[in-house]
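Hi W.,

Here's what went into the run:
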Amino acid sequence: MALNGVDFEIQPGEVRAIIGPNGAGKSTFFNCLTGVRHPSSGRIVFDGVDITGLPPDRISQRGIARSYQITNILPNVTALENVRIAAQSRRHAWNMLRHHGAFRDLLDEAAAALQAVGLLNKAEELASNLSHGEQRNLEIGIALATKPKLLCLDEPTAGMSAAETRDTMELVQRIAKNLTILIVEHDMPLVMELAHRITVFHYGEVIADGTPEDIQRNPRVQEVYLKT
Amino acid sequence: MSASGPSDDLLVKVEDLHAYYGKSHVLHGVSLTVGRGEVVALIGRNGVGKSTTLKGIMGLVMARQGRVLFEDKPIAGMPAHRLARLGIAYVPEDRRIFRLLTVLENLRTGLDRSGMTTTRRQALLDKVFGYFPRLAERRDQAGGTLSGGEQQMLAIARAMMLEPKIILLDEPTEGLMPRMVSQIKEIIDALHREGVAILLVEQNVPLTLECSQRVYFMEKGEVRHHARASELSVNDPVIHQYLGV
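Here's what came out:
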């Protein structure tokens, strides 16, 4: 059992971090939220609508986007194409068959998403030529281009240097102004600075939930982290 | 650096190791030493490069820069079997038990090598079965049917078959029950008494502080701090900074 009776709520505009040791169920929780996995029991309600059991594309249409722990981009097209395709996914399904030139505003939307993640100057660069940090940020740009209400970020700074981590953190803070964000992250200083609230998972259960200060003061959380 | 290892009797020396996974620069110049017979711990959060450092020593990830010396000789690029013959054993986090082979057959993969006499083989087997009576009971059972804790014991026992000078031990207590954790601690202590060096990657703080002589703290692919285990306590601010919340 990967998740066991998780109760979780997030308010619009909130930045919430999910933390917990290896195997706590954090990624599984993301997978359930985004339709990659379906819960064996329980319900997920998003924006007043029951989305339990919906496939990932339908959940994306409803306004939940995610980035993965392992970079997930189209390496052989440009950065702009990567976000443009994501933006086009918001149009009616039949419109996917039309040439994107038919939707001039799509390119504006795509450019805006690139701008938001600081990659507008790399728009015509093949995604495979971007640095690791840029590729990770492009992935956030792809998620943003779907115009989500809720953005789920799974370890956005994984494999980044300290400097890249700092940049990505500023990026998340910038985009958080207009979005609800759920972030899984191991970098504690980053989590403490970024999150309004923190939920702590352990062996598939929520063991604590509160402000960063609450969580830092919680002896059970320290116990779980230090294995004392 | 608040402490330094015994430079007179160095077994492993890692110098300025840089490694990448694809484009991701994961080790940013890791340097550390392990003395002969010394238990040294590498601790830090998920994804900071602890396991990658072990893989760098084993040649499982290529170092783009820096070097690894074993008994003063560079070992970069050596295949695993040569490292094993030099006396380096590796117990990866996922244990890599041969699931379809029996416990005894798993052990024999390290035991059946040139220069071994029947008496020595038997003595080694007797020794590990003494340490791990569970494995003796299950010697004819397939490795894949063992519990997680038993598989961890088997992985360590198999490494011991090489009579190594050092064992690289990657999170041996991950996911184990408290009773199993104390057994792992006992075996680390026993290996230490026998003079086997251990480079231990762990997140279990009490175990790490009890078992090891020195501790390296990693963050973002770098060693950020280094201390004698005897100078640290579970409540130490340093421990909290690198592992707590």
